[in-house]
Amino acid sequence: MPTTQPRIEDLFAARAREAVPPLYGAAGQRTTPMISLAYGLADPALFPRDQLSAAAATLLGDHPAAAEALNYGMTFPGLTQQVCERLRRQAVEAEPEQILIGYGSSQILALLPQVFLDPGDTVIIEGPSFMGAVKRFQMAGAHLVTVPVDAEGMNTDALADTLRDLAATGKRPKFIYTIPTFHNPTGATMPLARRKRLIELAAEYGVLVVEDDAYGDLRFQGDEIPPLAALDSDGWVLRVSTFSKILAPGLRIGWAYGRREIIDRLAMFKSEGTTGPFITRVVALYSAEGRLDNHIDALCDLYRSKCQVMVDAIKRELPDVQFTAPDGGFFVWATLPQGMRATELLERAQERGMSFLPGVNCYPDERGNECIRLAFSFQSAEKIEEAIGILGNAMRSI
Ligand SMILES: Cc1ncc(COP(=O)(O)O)c(C=O)c1O
User: What pTM was computed for the model?
Assistant: First the structure.
């Protein structure tokens, strides 16, 4: 007989004992009404509910594919074709065998450690970065090496130094995780010259580049820049993207494009096998005939105007912060006045009714507390103005 009360926690594997709750857990606990600029949520105002519902109704009616759509079965190949077509329009010569559709790009990013990482392996990340992905690499025991991001995305000179130093100690990183277009959290976009340099370095050192392009379609100003995958002729880029930001995150559909060897391996670890025969058909049926493209145009108009509202409000209410207005995506990243700490500011802001993401949540260590991320994607223009006004008050209170 055990002498102490047995604890269920003692049954957990080491990785589960060390696990931390997901970022999204904390927000619900407050009772003060809060205007949150913390999360990169899509604006529900433009969810194409009628058209999605029409697509679902078509499939559930006497559509010839109804029985197949509702049974166990394949990921709908028509959706894979559509992803290929979108890639070809960006000068990426994709074939269906090079695509894996998954339950959100999160699922695909979470599969990367299974295929690439043994404990102690090196992964290069950007600082700051999207912790939803980075935490997965960390949990797999990766040794994370951070390369700084500036107003032009990952600093490729610093990357070159990092790769050289690692090579000098006999280390070959498994991959470089980058968000080159409308970066989360900084909103920065890497110019062409840096993209080319990144591809060159990847080929020189034989390192995979994971190009996370969650926001790339949401350009509301400035000129298009080719994705990394379009600049890479040797297969060093694995491109990961999603329908979450351009259609609806609740559909949970994302995809990866890359060398067939990688796609096949990722698929082997996707334990449930294929991705929803029904939902992949709904997305494909909805997206056909230019509907998705038109929808993306409407989203860009909406996010352009909301970004402008935020930028104007920041200039008016927070004259002491430094920031660069993004050309697309969901976020403004701001540097606080000298000596101000984001976590302290967050407390003051929450007491007054608004929240944001402190920069420290975008690093795997203690860095980033001088920065904040403000999402303009979810709240209405009025709420964005109100929230930035509250933030101004909170800053003046420190
Ligand atoms: C950079 C980045 N990558 C990936 C994701 C995950 O998107 P999803 O799993 O909805 O496809 C997000 C979501 O916020 C993101 O910001």
Answer: 0.95
